[in-house]
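Before any further analysis, we paired sequence with structure tokens, yielding the entry below:
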Amino acid sequence: MAALSTVNDPELHRDLVSLGMIERAEVTGGVAQIKVNLTTPACPLKGQIEREVREAALTVPGVSEAVVTFGATVRMAAQPALPGVKHVLLVGSGKGGVGKSSVAVNLAASLAADGARVGLLDADVYGPSVAHMLGQGAARVTANAERKMQPIEAFGMKFISMANLSPAGQALVWRGPMLHSAVQQFVKDAAWGELDYLIVDLPPGTGDVQLSLTQTVQVTGAVIVTTPQDVALIDAARAIDMFRKASVPVLGVVENMSYFVAPDTGNVYDLFGRGGSRKLGEGYPLLGEVPIDMEVRQDGDAGIPAVLAHPDTPAARALIGVARNLAGQVSVLAVNKELAQSLADLPDQLTVV
């Protein structure tokens, strides 16, 4: 344990022992068996942690081999966002057409594929698309024995969409109070069960749904999806300002349609410019740059997230990276809040005996 205390979590910048991440450390016949309990199953730096833990264990006299295994427990900051739900994460944009729903679906699918318990709420009431992207457009939301909405399951995650509650193709002509009531039902009257992350696909803009959500549940943070050109960045800045006013941390920015790789030549084209998201200012991590990829669109139309259907394509790899970077940001936020709370709980005056 002394040797392992020299290994820091690369994102949390504290040692694994003080963070309580070493679940087991045993030595038998010169072989060290070490189990590390990560702060998220989607840890982006798992390989680095494994390498450094092994190197530290091999410095102990008598240890000739180190076997490192992993578990994961998603940390939760203070109170749960909802009963059984550790984190509510909003995926928003200042305008439509930037691929926000595609990003939200693939983030959720990637986190679920890594082993997290994930829910996906399609809060774009007027233009729901999540059900189609998950191949569940014909499915219907039912009620359980407690008369709560039973989320539909697909690809290892739970989801609810207005598309599964209203007749296909029917336009919803609702005013603000009806939207507020619907949002409250989606989050409070649904049997989400035990979730590590509830991903919420927001409608474009900064309107009633966004306001209702931030007032209804304890939101861990938000992700901003934008494209590189200025017209999208102007609206993304408005979305950031809205979350700031609602006291919702912005966990990072996703630059979608960042570039295009020609499949025949491999040449890279910056169709909408590139790197524009950095203009949004410091303090908002760039979670990833996702290229334009026809297979993302084709997979969405076919009802299979691209990160599952074609995980080796450039866009899918980028989206998987975004999901893991997001999980890392959530872990950093949760652990920092744990530390701040523990310091706040200390007595005002300490007496040295």
Observations:
- Residues 103 and 264 are 25 Å apart (CA to CA).
- The two ends are 29 Å apart (CA to CA).
- The chain has two domains: 4-72, 85-327.
